Amino acid sequence: MRTLSSFGPANRSARSEETHPMTWRLRDDGQPVWLEEYQQKNGYAAARKALLDMAAADIVSTVKDSGLKGRGGAGFPTGVKWSLMPADESQNIRYLLCNADEMEPNTWKDRLLMEQLPHLLIEGMLISARALKAYRGYIFLRGEYVDAARNLNRAIAEARAAGLLGGNILGSGFDFELFVHTGAGRYICGEETALINSLEGRRANPRAKPPFPASVGVWGKPTCVNNVETLCNVPAIVGNGVEWYTSLARPDSGDHGTKLMGFSGKVKNPGIWELPLGISARELFEDYAGGMRDGYALKCWQPGGAGTGFLLPEHLEASMYSGGIAKVGTRMGTGLALAVDHTVNMVSLLRNMEEFFARESCGWCTPCRDGLPWSVKTLRALEGGRGSAEDLEILARLVEFLGPGKTFCAHAPGAVEPLGSAIKYFREEFEAGIDPAAGRGRPKAEFVQA
Amino acid sequence: MSNLIKTDRFVLSDAERAAIEEEMHHYEDPRAASIEALKIVQQARGWVPDGAADAIGEILGIPASDVEGVATFYSQIFRQPVGRHIIRVCDSMTCFIGGHESVLDGIRTTLGIEPGQTTADNRFTLLPVCCLGNCDKAPALMIDDDTFGNVTADSVAALLEDYP
Amino acid sequence: MATIHVDGKQYEVDGADNLLQACLSLGLDVPYFCWHPALGSVGACRQCAVKQYSDENDTRGRLVMSCMTPATDNSWISIDDEEAKAFRASVIEWLMINHPHDCPVCEEGGHCHLQDMTVMTGHNQRRYRFSKRTHVNQDLGPFIAHEMNRCIACYRCVRYYKDYAGGTDLGVFGAHDEVYFGRVEDGVLESEFSGNLTEVCPTGVFTDKTHSERYNRKWDMQFAPSICHGCSAGCNISPGERYGEIRRIENRFNGSVNHYFLCDRGRFGYGYVNRKDRPQRPLLQRSRLSMGIDAALDQAAGLLNRQRILGIGSPRASLESNFALRELVGAEDFYSGMAREELANVNAIRELIQHGPLPTASIRDIENHDAVFVLGEDLTQTAARIALALRQSARGKATEIAEAAGIQSWHQAAVQNIAQGALNPVFIASVDSTRLDDIAAEAVRAAPADLARLGFAVAHAIDPSAPAVDGLEADARELAGRIAEALLAARRPLLVSGASLGSRSLIDAAANIAQALKNRGKDASISMVVPEANSMGLSIMLADEPGDRSVEAALDAVVEGRYDALVILENDLYRRADSQLVDAALAAAKVVIVVDHQQTPTADKAHLLLPASSFAEGDGTLVSLEGRAQRFFQVFEPGYYNPDVLIREGWRWLHALRHTLLGKPVDWTSLDQVTAACAAVHPRLAGITEAAPDASFRIKGQKLARAPHRYSGRTAMRANISVHEPRQPQDPDSPFAFSMEGYSGAGQDRQQIPFAWSPGWNSPQAWNKFQDEVGGHLRAGDPGVRLLDGARMDVDWAQPPAAFAPAAGTWQVVPLYHLFGSEENSARAEPIQQRMPQPYVALAEAEAQRLGVTDGAMLALSLGDRQLQLPARISSELPLGVIGLPVGLPGIPPLTAASVATGIKEATR
Ligand SMILES: Cc1cc2nc3c(=O)[nH]c(=O)nc-3n(C[C@H](O)[C@H](O)[C@H](O)COP(=O)(O)O)c2cc1C
Ligand code: SF4
Ligand code: FES
Fold it and tell me: What are the protein's UniProt keywords (chain C) (predicted)?
C-alpha cells in the first residue's frame, strides 16, 4: 500500500504553455508524463532546435540573456556560470551535473518535476550539455526519492531508445550519456562541491573555491552543477526565446521567468505553484495558500527553506524575487515558504532546526562542526528553562562567526541565518528560557545531556 | 570453549559482486561506485556488516579505510543491524510544526521503540530523516520505500500493519 | 616577490606563498592547525583567519583564511584586527568544546601545538557548560598511542598518512562532530612512517607509545642535535634524555635531509641505548672482573704490549673512533670492519658519487626530481627516508599539473583534485615486491644479475654508445626502452641504486646509466644507498690505503698468525663474516679487546671489553650516503647519575690506550682535537671540521643549552646518591651545556639546535622560527658538509654480466631487508622487536609448488656447510632460482652475492 505524491495544487491550478513553461505539461491525475505524451505536448522540440539549429555558444548566450538565475538556492546567474566553462576546446571531457539532492527542510519542488516531468529535466540537461559541450551527465538524486529515481530511470531508458540520449543524438553528431546517481543521505551533498566529492565516491566534504568546478570538477575535469528546476527552465527559454521569457515575471521583478513557489505550515492550502517572479509574498500566502488555517495566526514566515531568515507578517508585502526579499533582510532561497503559526515557540523551532544543521554538518570546518552542536545544547537549555545569562551572547557570537565567508561552505551560514533573525524578532522568547539562578559559565546540576 | 576457528569472514555474494561491477561502468573511476556498492550490500543484507569495507575496497581498488570512511559518513548506510523494515520519520522543521512528535509518540506506543532503536522481534527500526520533500503533507514518514503524508499518531499504527 | 602590508607595515614576501606562509616566514605569529609546511593548505580549521582589505582605503575588510589566500602583490591585511582576534579566539573555544582539557595527564603537554595556539589566541575561559562527546581509542601497535578524545579534527593525520606517506590503513570515519580518525579496526599501523603522526598531530591524539611508560615532559629532558644511526640516510634527530635514559626521539629539522619526517626505525629504535645488559664498566670476560678506567687501561696495555695488533673498525662507529683505532694500531693494520664484498661495493659507490658523471641528490632534493629509476634497492627497508622522499617525487606530477592550470602548489585539495592521482614515473626493479610498488609506473622482479642487465640495457637505450646487453629478452629490452624514454623525457631524472644486494654489476649498471644520462645532457642526479650510518665515512677514510681492508682479510691475517692481538671497535664480526672464520680468528688471537656499547656475540668472546658510548653518550661525525658529514652530539653524561658507569667514547678509550702503551699523557682531551687530527691525516675528510661549530662556539657568550629553561627537578635528581647537588658535568667536546643554562632561543641564527623551542612555540612547529622561510632551510644553513662533490669525470663503460642461470639444484640466496630487524642496534629495542618478522626463507610460488610446500612449512636447506631450518614464506613475486633470507634476523648467517643454497626440502619433523 502506498500513496502517490500528488502535489495537489500544483497539478490542479490553471496552467498554460505561455505562462507556465515548467508545469503546463503536468497531468491533473499526478501521474508521470512519459515520452509519448511529453512529445505530444511539444516535448523535445527545443532540444531539436538546440541540437540542430543552434551553435553551443548561441545556447549559452540565450540563457545568459534570459537572466535565468540558479534555482538551487544561491541564485547565481546560470548563463554566467555556463560561460565560466573553459573556452579551450582541447578540454573536451566535461560534465553536467544535475543537483537533485533536495534535502533542505521545506524544499520539495524538484521532487515534483522529477516524479512527474522526468523528460523535461532530461531535455533540459540535453540542451544544457550541448551548450556546455558535456559528453556525460549525472543526476545526483537523494536516495529517499525512490519514485523520482524510478521515473527518471524509465524516462532515460525511453529517451535512449528514442535516440534522444546516447550517440549522435537526433543526427546532430552530439553524444550525451545520462546516469542517475543516488545518494545515501546527508544534506551537505547538495552543496555543489560536496556533491562532486560524493559523486566521486568520497566523503561529501565541500571543496574550496577557487578553483571552481568549471575548471576543476568531477575527476578533475570542467564541470557544471545546476539545480533541477534551473535545468527545467532551459527548454522553454531555448524554445520560446529570450523576449518571451523575460516577459514572464512581474514588471517590477529584478529576476526573470517563473519559479516554483510554495507555502507550507498551518496554511489552508499548502502546495507549490509555478508563479511569475516578483509576485508579492502576500499574494502567494493568501491567494494561493489560502492564508492561515482557522484558529491559527501567522507569527512569522520564512521565504525559501531552512537556510533563510524569518520574516514578520508585515514583510508579506515583499516581492518574491532575490532583490525583493533582500530588501527585507534575507534571501529568496528556494522560494518555498513556511508559515510559522502562533502556537510555535521559536526557541523550540530553532532548536529543531539547529539539530538538523548540526547533524548534517560534514565535520570539516571548526565553526560549523563544533559551533552548531553548541547552539543546539544552548537552545535545549533555553527551551527547558535552564538557560544561563550569557547564552544569548553565546548564540549571537555563533550567528556572527558562523556567517558568510567565515566557514568553509555555506552550510553554517544557512544554519545561523534563521537563528539570527529569530533572536532579532523574538528575543523575549529566548530570554524567557534563562534561569536567573544559572551562574555564568558554571556547570549546573542539571548538566544538560547531548 | 570450543577450539573452533571463526570463519565468518565477510564474502560478497556473486550477485553483489556482479551488481557492483556493473555499477563501476557508470563512472570514470571505480571509486565512484563505493556508495552504490555499500547500498548493494545493504540491499541484500539489510546492513553493511564488518568486513564489507575490505571486500568492496578490493573490487574498487581503494583502501578499506576509504570505504569505511564513506560508509560511516552517509546517514543511510547502516553499519549496525537493522530491522526488516525501516521507518524514517521526518524530523525537519515543517514536520516539527506539523506535529512529528505525536507521530513518534504513536510509534512509541505501538512498537515501544525510540529513534535509533529496533523492535525486539527485529521487525522495525525507527530512524529520523531529513525533510522528505513532502512538506505540504506534514508530518511525513517513509516505511521502506513508501512515503506517507499527513500521518497522525492514530494513523501510523494502521500503516505499520502492512509491513509484516 | 610581492609587497604585502600587514598591520600597516610593508614587507617583501614570496608571491607564490599563501598569506599564512608569508606571515610565518616573516616571523609574525598567526595561529593555525590544519596547515602544515609539508602538507599544504586545506582551509578546514579556520584558525588562521586574518582581516583582508581590498586596498589601503578599505577600512571594513573581511575575514579570510590566510592559508587559503595567495600573498598577491599589494595585499593589505591585519592580524591584530579586533574581529580577526575575536574570531580566532572563538575557533579555539569551539575546538575546546570537546577537548578533554587533560593537559596534566596528556603526553603532548609541553610540546603541544594546541596549547601554544590556545595561549596565543588568548582563549582562557571556558563558557561551554555541557557534556563532551567521547570516543573509544584503538590499539595501534607498539609505536603509537591513540587518544581520540583530544582530537580537534584538523585532518592533518589522514592527510599526512594517506596523501603524503602513502599509507592506507588510517582513515577518517563518521561525520559532523563525531568524526573519528583511526583504523577500521584495532591493529598495528602499517606505514613505516607512522611515527611522524606524533609530530603532525597538533595535539595528543597520536603520541609516542615507546615513551609512555617512562614519560616526562619535553621541558624535563636534555636534548642534543644528533644523527640517526639507523641507516645511511643521515636523518637529523633530537633525542631526549631523562635520568640517564633516552626517552624519545624527535625529528630535527634539516632542510636538506629529512626536513619534517623520520622513519619508524629511526624514531622508535633507540631502546638499545637503555638496555640494562649494556657494557657499563671495563670487564675482563674470563674472570668477570670489572674494573676502573686506569686499571682497565693498564690491563689493556699489559695485554697489548709488544704484540702485533690488528684493528677492526666499524661502519657504525664515528669517524673519530675509527680514526683513534687507526692511530692505535697504525694505518697498515687498520681494517674497515666491512665484509669484503660490501667494502668493495661501498668503495665503488664512493668513487661514483665523488667523481662520477652525476651529482648525488640530497634527500630533500630527491623530491624535486620528476622521473625515477630504482635499481635493486628495497628502499623502504634499506633507507626508508628516501622511500618517503620518492613518494614526493612521484607526487610532484600533481603539483606540475596544478601549476600549469594556475593552481598554487600549496592548495593541496585542489592540486589533488585536478591531478586525479597522476604521478611522475617511478620504475622499480627489485628482487621481491617493495612497499613503494604502489607508486611505481612499472615494477619488475629479477635476480640481481638480471636486474643489472636491465640497468645496462637502460643505459644502452639512453645512449646507444653504452654497451648493449647480449641476448636480452624482448620484454626486458622493451621495458628498458620505456624506462630510458621516461628518464629522457623528464626535466630532472633520478637514478637510485645501492649496495644492499651485494651486486657489483648493479653499481656498474648504475654508473653506465649515469654516464648515459650525462652524455644526453640531462640535468640528472643519482642516489646510492650504502649499508650503514658511517659506511661512507669509513670508505673515505680508507680510500688511499693499499690492500684489502675487509673483515675477511683481517680475520685471515689473524688466523695465519700474522698478528697476536685484535682490537675490535663497535663491531659484531659474526654479522660480517662466516662464523667459523670468526671463531677461528678469535681463537687464534692471543688478545681480543672489544670496545662496544652492546653485549654482542663478539663482545662475549673478548678478553677485555671496554664500554663505549652509543650515539647518546658521545659525540662524533658520520658521513651519510650522500657524502654529507654530520656531527652528532652527546645527549647526556651517564656518570652523572651513576658514577659507577664508565662509558666513554670509543675514541677516548682508544686514544688513552695508545698513550698508555706509549707511556705518554693523552693529547686529545676534546673531540675537536680528534676531528682535526683525522681531517689533517685524511685530506679527503678535511671538510669534517666544518660539519659543525667547534666547542668554542658561543652565542652572546653563552654555551647552548641542552635542556629547555623550564627543566625541573635537577636538585633532586641525584638525591638518592647524595643530597649535595654536584656541579653539572662539563662538556669539553661541544658548545652545549649539560644544563638549561645557556642559549636556547631562535633569535640568533644557529645550525645546531638540540630541541625546537621559541617563546610561545613549544611544539615541533617551533621549527618555523629557525627557518629562512617556513618549511625551507635553517636560517643559519642546514647542518653538515658535503664531502664528495668532487670534479665530475666520465666513467669508462662497464660491461653487463651474464644472465642469471643457477646451476641445477642450487638457488642463489638474496638478502631481504626489514626496516624492523635488519639493523643490528635497533633490533635490540623492545618495541622494534615486536614488529620484527620471525626468521624465514622466502621462495617463489612455483618453487614452493614444485617442492609441495605451503606457506609456513618448515624447510631445510644447506648454505655451504651450514644447515638451516626455516619456515617458508611464499612470495608471488620472487624470481625462480633464488631464495630470500631476512638479513640480520636470528640464525640467518651473513650473506654474500655468491651465497648459494642447495638441498631445499621440507624438513622432516
Ligand atoms: C548546505 C547546502 C545544501 C545545498 N543543497 C542543495 C540542493 O539540495 N539542491 C540544489 O540544487 N542546490 C543546493 N545547494 C546549492 C548548491 O550549492 C548550488 O548552488 C546549486 O546546486 C547550483 O545550482 P543552480 O545554480 O542551478 O542553483 C546547497 C547549498 C548548500 C550550501
Ligand atoms: S560549513 Fe564547514 S563543516 Fe559545515 S558543512 Fe560546510 S564545510 Fe562542512
Ligand atoms: S590553517 Fe588555515 S584554515 Fe587551518
Answer: 2Fe-2S, 4Fe-4S, Iron, Iron-sulfur, Metal-binding, NAD, Quinone, Translocase, Ubiquinone
What residue in B sits closest to A178 (Cα-Cα)?
B26
Tell which CATH architecture fits domain C810-906.
Beta Barrel (2.40)
- To the question of domain C349-530 being in CATH 3.30.1490.20, the answer is no
In this prediction, residue C273 has a pLDDT band, given cuts at 50, 70 and 90, of very high
- Closest to C235 (Cα-Cα) out of C624, C736, C578: C624
CA C773, C774, C776 angle in degrees (round to 5)?
65
Structural domains of chain A, with CATH? 9-248 (3.40.50.11540), 258-341 (3.10.20.600), 346-432 (1.20.1440.230)
**Nearest by CB to A203, which of B27, B73, B97?**
B73
A447 pLDDT higher than 50: no
Instruction: Name which of C175, C407, C420 is nearest A211 (Cβ-Cβ).
Output: C407
CA distances from C719 to B98, C240, C641, C723, C746 (A): 75, 22, 10, 5, 34
Residue A5: pLDDT band by 50, 70, 90 thresholds? low
- Nearest to residue C96, comparing CAs of C120, C126, C119? C126
Task: For residue C153, report the distance from its CA to the centre of ligand 1, in Å.
Answer: 25
Question: A355 — contact with chain C (CB < 8 Å)?
Answer: no
**For chain B, which residues make up each domain, given as ranges?**
14-73, 85-161
Quote the minimal CA–CA distance from A364 to chain C in Å: 6
Torsion from C-alpha of C743, C748, C749, C752, nearest 10 degrees: 10
Question: Among C184, C186, C191, C418, which would you mutate to test the B interface (most chain B Cβ atoms within 10 Å of its Cβ)?
Answer: C184
Distance CA C353, CA C889 (A): 31
The minimum CA-CA distance between B90 and chain C, rounded to whole Å, is 19
Class of domain C2-95 (CATH, top level): alpha beta
Residue type at position C718? R
pLDDT in tens, C631-675: 999 999 999 999 999 999 999 999 999 999 999 999 999 999 999
Nearest-Cα distance to chain C for A284, in Å, is: 36
pLDDT tens by residue, C449-485: 999 999 999 999 999 999 999 999 999 999 999 999 9
CATH number for the domain whose boundaries are B85-161:
3.40.30.10
Q: Which amino acid makes up residue C89?
A: A
What is this model's ipTM? 0.95
Q: Whose CA is nearest to atom 8 of ligand 2?
A: A362
Identify the chains in contact with C, defined as 3+ C-beta pairs within 8 A.
Answer: A, B
- % residues pLDDT > 70 (chain C): 100
Phi, psi at residue A302, to the nearest 5°?
A: -120, 130
State the sign of the Cα–Cα–Cα–Cα dihedral A362, A363, A366, A369: positive
Residue from A197, A368, A401 whose mutation best tests the ligand 2 pocket (most atoms within 8 A of CB): A368
Q: How far apart are CA C623 and CA A349, in angstroms?
A: 70
Packed helices A391-401 and C82-98: angle between N→C axes, nearest 10 degrees: 110
Average pLDDT over residues C698-704: 97
What digits encode the pLDDT tens for the residues A51-102?
A: 999 999 999 999 999 999 999 999 999 999 999 999 888 888 999 999 999 9
Is B130 annotated as ligand-binding? Answer: no
- In the numeric block, the cell 497531468 is attached to A27
d(CA C629, CA C536) in angstroms, rounded, equals 9
**Whole-number Å distance between alpha carbons of C46 and A366:** 7
Residues from chain C that touch A371, judged by Cβ atoms under 8 A, are: 90, 94
Q: Distance, CA C466 to ligand 3 centroid (Å)?
A: 52
Residue B70 to residue A145, Cβ atoms within 8 A = no
DSSP state of C560: T
Residue A10 pLDDT level (bands cut at 50, 70, 90): confident
pLDDT bin (cut points 50, 70, 90) of residue C909 is low
Residue B2 has pLDDT above 60, yes or no: no
